[in-house]
Design a protein that fits this description.
single chain; 299 residues; 2 domains; Rossmann fold; N-(1-d-carboxylethyl)-l-norvaline Dehydrogenase, domain 2
């Protein structure tokens, strides 16, 4: 199989190497010339434009996008839609909002271009050595390229989810669950830090990674992090959110589904960046006014 791959960030770069190892003839493109140079040094083919990529691929073309969600992937798809032919297949392997994926499928369908939404999990290691893939799209289209997904996924790490948009919908839910799991791990370690016990966090993460009910990749990641920084002293407690948690909470409101754990984990990320703490100031001021409670003044 010959495939084009656009986007050589952390995930796309390693995915290209994974494809190469699996005997897939992958041709890559990125707007960053440095990334192309590095990719070429790995023995992977590169081109210098969308036009060159499209011209190099046989019809029906298959192009995998591994670029940031939102305006960037929208722009790439818009450009490619003017270059591709009827029957070609675009795969969005990034973390796009599922409603955007449904819209893009419908828009490209009008031009005769097939669109597949692929939720990609497993991090950098998964991209390189075997990813977890959740794929949505028309069944016949997905079936025509299913060997690609099976080849680059780990064993049993690929599933055809269903109609267009469903792959990214399931990936959104996956990431929301991940938010809640990570928040629970963080709260557990914070309680240990606040206790009177002198606990070796690396040792705890290690033992929990071997046979405990909560063992898994996230705990193994925690073990690795504590091995590099025993008290996480070099890390600020600020946490980004990449969008999926917010989309999941918004979707839950639409369907009137309660998601207290995931919603609170999203709010915790917002609060981690709140250096002003205005709501706490308001509460402190009210308590001082009605009850004369102490207010901690700025020095």
């Amino acid at each position: 199989m010959k495939i084009g791959l656009i986007g050589l960030g952390k995930m796309g770069y390693h995915l290209a190497l994974n494809m190469k190892d699996k005997g897939i003839d992958v041709i890559t493109y990125d707007v960053q010339k440095k990334a192309l140079t590095q990719m070429a040094s790995e023995g992977v083919k590169t081109v210098d434009s969308y036009e060159s990529l499209v011209a190099t691929l046989p019809q029906p073309r298959v192009i995998w996008l591994m670029v940031p969600s939102g305006k960037i992937v929208e722009g790439v798809i818009n450009q490619l839609s003017t270059l591709l032919s009827q029957g070609d297949i675009l795969i969005d392997g990034g973390n796009s909002m599922y409603l955007d994926s449904i819209r893009r499928y419908q828009s490209l369908k009008e031009k005769g271009i097939n669109f597949v939404d692929c939720g990609t999990s497993g991090g950098i290691n998964g991209a390189r050595n075997g990813a977890c893939l959740m794929v949505g799209g028309e069944s016949e289209v997905v079936k025509s390229i299913e060997t690609l997904f099976i080849a680059i996924a780990q064993k049993d790490g690929y599933a055809y989810i269903g109609q267009p948009g469903s792959g990214h919908f399931v990936k959104m839910v996956h990431n929301g669950i991940e938010y809640g799991m990570m928040q629970a791990i963080g709260e557990g370690f914070e309680l240990m830090k606040s206790s009177e016990f002198d606990i070796d966090y690396h040792q705890v993460a290690k033992v929990w990674s071997h046979g405990s009910i909560i063992e898994g990749l996230l705990m193994k990641n925690m073990q690795d992090a504590f091995s590099k920084d025993a008290k996480l002293a070099m890390i600020e407690g600020k946490v980004d959110d990449s969008g999926e948690g917010q989309w999941m909470v918004e979707t839950a409101l639409k369907y009137k589904v309660a998601l207290p754990v995931i919603t609170q984990s999203l709010y915790a990320r917002y609060k981690s960046k709140d250096e002003n703490k205005f709501s706490e100031k308001v509460v402190a001021a009210i308590r001082n006014e009605f009850g004369g409670h102490a207010v901690y003044k700025k020095s």
